[in-house]
Amino acid sequence: MKTPSPAKPNPFDMPNKEMGWCPGCGNYKLLDALKGALIELGIDRRNLVVVSGIGQGAKTPQYLNTNMFNGLHGRSLPAALGIRLSNRNLTVIAESGDGCMYGEGGNHFLHAIRRNCDMTLIVHDNMIYGLTKGQASPTSLPGMKTPVQIDGVMLEPFNPLAVSLALNAPFVARASAGDEEETKEIIKQAISFRGFAVVDVFQPCVVFNRLNTYQWFRENTYYLPGDYDPADRMQAFAKAVETEKLPLGVIFREEGRPVYEDLLGIGNTPLRSQEFREEAFEKMIAEYR
Amino acid sequence: MRHYSSDISIVFGGGAGQGIQTIASTLVNVLKRSGCHVFACTEFMSRVRGGSNSTQVRITGKKRHAYVNRIDFLFALNADAIAHLKTRITPTTMVFADKNQVESADPGHLVDTPITAFARQAGNPIYSSTAAVAVALGLLGIPQGGLDNYLREIFADKGESVVADNIEAARLGYAFGRETALREEIEVEIAVEPEKNRPKELLLDGTAAVGIGAVAAGCTFISSYPMSPGTGVLTFLAQRSHEFSIVVDQAEDEIAAINTALGASYAGARAIVTTSGGGFALMEEGISLAGMTEVPLVVHLGQRPGPATGMPTRTEQGDLSLVLHAGHGEFPRVILAPGTFAEAILLTQRAFQLADRYQLTVFVLTDQFFLDSAGTVPESAVRKEPIERHIVETDEEYMRYRFTPDGLSPRGVPGYGKGIVKCDSHEHDETGHLTENFETRRRMVEKRLRRIKALAAESLMPELVGGSADAPNIVVAWGSNRGVLEESLDTLQRADLAGLHFSQLYPINPSVAALLKGKIVTVLENNASGQFADLLHRELAVSTAHRILKWTGEPFSVEEVVEALREI
């Protein structure tokens, strides 16, 4: 396991910030991977907005020295859409947990993929509700007992990768927060990708999920081999529905898909700077004469 | 002899898809060009085809903005229309219909009007609408030339033969209308100013008025989910989106709509959402988010009767309490409710201005009756206010929620300046990071609420819409009831009655208390409980002596308000 080098200060760091996460939480590694990706991509923190909802993973932008819209539970993708459409010069990352994105915000998840805005979605998928103290999440595995699911989880787990592929998301990936370096590389690809990039990240909750631990993820995942072709959608589907061992890496990637900003004809001028069109206004009024 | 002086009510009734809207809109356009004061309102069923709908077109000596129960001429396109409007057909109502089409009904004074035959004779039954308009113009004695010109314009791209056929249908209908007027001794007197003396006027409906207001305010963003009667504003801005570079996103649901609008506004757009009560109920968490994050937002809510699905295409003023209390927690808001189209244009601009200046949510509260009515507006009343911009360039020390004496922190947006902008739905400190510090919480709540005082001080005063301010009886109306109150008071001409119209419902200007002091107050509103009367009591301790309420799903008619006021 790589430890972040303390030698070089990262402009995204917030050194004196009191952290709200439990010791050993997978969120720390994901935060470090994200910071690493941002610095390596040379992203200007003033032109980045990290949008989140509510949950432990959703606290991520609280610990990043960059623009933040920490909105409501489940609603980070709609807010991210509004931000991106209002100023396409901004890099937009929506980041929240599995409950926020796949549960409360499930409908937005579906339609964000359909829009294909150029932004990145990073889901902290710990297969549990941490902030509310240990209830089942949409991705919890069947049989897991919780204070609410006393007879074990009965629902079929939500499969974010298969759903993304079904909606023809142009970039679908899965990472594992325990592998910080690999996670950073996947996030870098996702941010650089032009279009809507979905990254589901396995992230151990060390307090409430005693089933899906660091060790469990190590034992139950594998990285896609170097010769894997991410352009093949049907093969990606096959990978997405594997359950024996869960594949990690970029499962699907298709370049050149039109992005929503372009289809809407949005230019580089942010909406805040748009001039009022007096002439068009006069012309419109004349139509009602 | 039937003499009509300066006030005629023509109603077109039929099923959805039979062309009532086309007939009414053609007639209204031609009448407007002829210099008449015209007002039209429409009632329809929640169906795509069939059912029974009607549109009223009023031609009046004075400018009016109200619905009357009375029908002078009814054009019935099917038998159902006669059954549907039965209670409004009186011995003075003349019914124009194709006898074969309405055989089963008992329409009273029926004039067999073979509109479809005229259309066929002109070449195609599709020209029926044109023939119907022409019959009406013939009855009114308004020259056919205006209609011919209008037809030439709207069918210009359909080719000469379509224009010629329509004009032929118009000629046949018009001749029939004139003959009927002579035979039935119909005499219509409408004062029309000579063209050169006429002020320039626009023909608008309520939806267009709100839409024009939004465009004039420099609105750059709308995200909404369709819901009657709020959808029109979404359609209006979509239609204008290319010429004004307005970003339009049809959201997957209302929750997405408001959160997207707030994201847009956070990034510097001027954003609006439009909806109706049921959709707004879903947006409530977003209203609370706007309250906490101090992100400006304009919400247009076109009211219809609730609860739940209620009556989707009908009218009511039942959502005042909803918008007044929407969203958990305590935070300020502004509620505007235009009473005329000119006011809708101005107040929608004002909504954007206040939202930006005070960093909060401003509601524009209308209703189905208002949005679907049409009428003339003097062009001089259509004003474009200067656009105020309140976004600042950030420096490195920038803090989004900096404490200031007036509670308003300079608004920075991401990507503009050297600072970063952190916006949080949690209680937060000045930098925008979540906090559980009790002292910061106390100060932040106070900061957000402080602006109420300034908002109340600049709150619009109600307008006197009839009678004199010293009258002992004051009748209060808000929003779309302005026209009906004005006309009712004009009809009654009583020195002891005056009307006061509120176009800002919250906060209420403290000076209003003095206007109502010692008065016998009657409140007129289109709901079952008297929500504004309760609000006046809560805010100003004004007690209401009489409440005139209606909650059938229809607007007030002038006749029933006159009747109700006679009791006072």
Report on this structure.
Chain A is 31% helix and 16% strand. Chain A has an 8-stranded mixed β-sheet with strand order 2-1-3-4-6-5-8-7, with helices on both faces. Chain A is of the alpha/beta class and 289 residues long. In chain A, strand 7, helix 8 and strand 8 form a beta-alpha-beta unit. Chain A has a single domain, classed as Thiamin diphosphate (ThDP)-binding fold, Pyr/PP domains (Rossmann fold, 3-Layer(aba) Sandwich). The model of chain A has no long low-confidence stretch (mean pLDDT 95). Chain B is of the alpha/beta class and 568 residues long. Chain B has 4 domains: 2-198, 3-Layer(aba) Sandwich (Pyruvate-ferredoxin Oxidoreductase, domain 3), CATH 3.40.920; 203-381, Thiamin diphosphate (ThDP)-binding fold, Pyr/PP domains (Rossmann fold, 3-Layer(aba) Sandwich), CATH 3.40.50.970; 391-457, no CATH class; 463-566, Rossmann fold (3-Layer(aba) Sandwich). Chain B is built from 19 helices and 25 strands. Chain B has an 8-stranded mixed β-sheet with strand order 7-6-5-2-4-3-16-9. In chain B, helix 3 (115-122) runs antiparallel to helix 6, helix 7 packs across helix 8 (231-239) and helix 7 packs parallel to helix 13. The longest helix of chain B has 24 residues, at 160-183. The mean pLDDT of chain B is 95. Strand 2 of chain A pairs parallel with strand 19 of chain B.
Provide the CATH top-level class of chain A: Alpha Beta
Instruction: Report the end-to-end length of chain A measured between terminal Cα atoms.
Output: 73 Å
CATH level-1 class of the largest domain in chain B: Alpha Beta
Detail the poorly predicted runs of chain B: none
Fraction in beta strands of chain B = 15-25%
Please give the CATH architecture of chain A.
Answer: 3-Layer(aba) Sandwich
Major sheet of chain B: 8 strands, mixed
Task: Please give the share of residues in helix of chain A.
Answer: 25-40%
CATH topology value of chain A: Rossmann fold
Number of strands of chain B: 25
CATH topology of the largest domain in chain B: Pyruvate-ferredoxin Oxidoreductase, domain 3
Name the structural class of chain A: alpha/beta
Total count of domains of chain B: 4
> What is the alpha-carbon Rg of chain B in Å?
26 Å
